[in-house]
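=== Given protein ===
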Amino acid sequence: MEIPDSKYKYGIVVDSGSSGSRLQVYRWPDPKYVAKNTKEPSILQSPPKITQEPNWSMKTTPGISTYSNKVKKIWPDHFKKLIKFAEEIVPKDKQSETPIFVLATAGMRLLTPKDQKKLLSQTCLELKKNSKFVIHNCGDHIQIIDGETEGIYGWVGLNYLMNQLENYDGKDAAHESIGFMDMGGASTQIAFVPSYAEDIKEHREDISRVTLRNVNGLTQEWNVFVETWLGFGANQARKRYLSQLVELSKINSNVGTSLNDPCLPKNAEISYDHDGTSYKISGIGDYEMCIRTIYPLLMKNVPCKEEPCLFNGVHAPRLNFDKDKFVGISEYWYTANDVFQSGGEYNYRIFNERVKKYCESNWADILENSGKGEYSKLDPDKFLKDACFKASWVINILHEGFDLPRLDLELPKEDVVEGEEKEITKVHVPFKSTDAIDGNELSWTLGKMLLYASSEIPSKEKDGSNIGVYPSEISGKKFVPAGGFIDGKGYDSDDDDNDKGFLLPLLVFLLLMFLVYNFAKGKVAFPKHRRFNQAKKLFFEMISKVPGLNNVLEAQLRYNELNRNDMDITLEEGALGSSQSSPNLTQLRTRSAINLSEGDNFAEGTINPQTNFLNKPFAMPKKSPFFQSQNNSRESLQRSVSNMSVQKSRNID
């Protein structure tokens, strides 16, 4: 069906990771126009079709978390170039209706709440001041998302690209989906729909409900289990591993500061600082020892409060690798593909042999091979020295953490195929790694945009679910809409700029000072305490009726809710919690590092959407910081007036 340019909608998502920000521009045909002009079931029973041209993506470094001490530079040095890029793509007549979302991840999670507040509020202020793109409210559009959010967005994006969300029939309980795995620098995630109906029922409190809307106005509903492990990404795992080597060495006082690392190729060397001491780490290239040494980092010894558990004491539904398929991105792909040429369908035997050979190679030979163009021309010091550890860590996570079967060792003999790597496709392969599907980059950002675009479609169901994510009961979070519109009505367009957060306290302060001044001058007096309370009540009622002031009051309260000091932005479970410090060990080839250092290879018609579902609806907290300060001011005023009245009576006497 031919879609006129005027019938397209646009959306912008900025993935602000630890290494930099990446802006993505998307577009999709207006679902109302599509619904009126086609009767094709495959289109009507599917979510909106999101597309992205090859050059609709731009990245900039470093990450916004580095601006915590220079927030005023976040616009001229960081976002200005990104917004200018987006303005060259989105037609001018569409910019005032095009939403923009800035979603920060690992780097921002590691900052203090105070620094997070400064960066989020400054980002929103600058974007609203310097662009025409739509921000319904800062809390929904500019936020830090946790690993759970990334996991669900990734699952939505993956299943969209794999066409699992097309022709959705709500009556088909066995509608298939594909599991999502992601490993970054700080954390690793998994998201999947449990295969067994009894598992969904038994684990209901652990499972989130994801809803999308088809072009025909009917709702899709998915039961998704999602979990994230902070501290189990490639960077953090490497840091914990080296710290483990150092701590174990202290048992022997004769070791000193020179240590051997079985996960480094032979004769490779690195330096590592730990507790103020610099250690010289030398590689001995012992793959079997490396695998055994890494295993304790999974922390499978952490008590499992309720079986079954995966690792680090995390309870989860059973993973059915006999039936289900999983796709891994980021480190799962980079390590396997760029160094070992084993990306794609996973063959344990082949991958294991190549990792073993590499780990036990001499560093001089690896450098020689790198000079010949092998290993995707990766920088030896930044990437190749860590390749043995990363590959070994991936193997441990997959097989010991998630219990993925080793194809040549654990599958029934009749299902095993001998011979070339390509013949592995003759059997069910439960895991594959990739960075793109049919030329479309696979990223969690796709899920964000798809949810947003889906939320704009009016419901055709009397009791249709709102679009977004109903977080698991155990998470304690409330439903948050995907953004945009709910059943055709504006979701939220309140203007809550930071300047309003500043204006309200100033205005109230000036008004109070005016009254105190007049009390002190004797121009206003309340001889009876009861009358003073009546006047005080009247005064605040008058403030609430000042044109526009009530909206400002509401915006301030919502802004305070966004910036609560106790805001929970790291929901990762397990013994490590959110106490891990920033890795900053090496420039590992993780998603955040690589996606921000290499060019994009989007094929025409690329899809990459994203939606905001952790946008907490702002409440009016009873113990809001604003109310607290306001009450204090009233009490101070009352005490001041009372004291002045007493002083006057004394003077008269």
Summary: Confidence is low (pLDDT under 50) at residues 409-425, 484-501, 551-653. Residues 1-232+312-346+430-653 form one domain. The two ends are 92 Å apart (CA to CA). The longest helix spans residues 625-652.
